[in-house]
Description:
Elements: E1 3-7, E2 10-13, E3 18-25, E4 33-39, E5 46-52, E6 57-59, E7 67-72, E8 77-82, E9 91-100, E10 105-109, E11 113-118
Parallel strand pairs: 2-11
Antiparallel strand pairs: 1-3, 3-8, 4-5, 4-9, 5-6, 7-8, 9-10, 9-11
Amino acid sequence: QVQLVESGGGLVQAGGSLRLSCAASGSIFRVLAMGWYRQAPGNQRELVAVMTSGGNTNYADSVKGRFTISSDNAKNTVFLQMNSLKPEDTAVYYCNFRVPTVTYHYDYWGQGTQVTVSS
């Protein structure tokens, strides 16, 4: 059974920084991509940043230049460094591991960690 455990959320003032971590436990033999998503109240879950197994990264326009995704593949851990935080970054952040299946892929999700940015 695979579980993703997130940490690092909290309350921070605008302009501050936070670093989120997500560690996977259980048997993961191959990962297609690791990513971070967020969901603010009343909004749909949206992509924040993703890193493929080849090391390619993609960011939402709203976080480019402020957030950085990285990983420790040996430990099946993904990080999100968030700098210059803004009140509009306030949301629950979820990590995601996409793994291949025989016919397609499967997404594992973390439980979510709250990030609150005060103005």
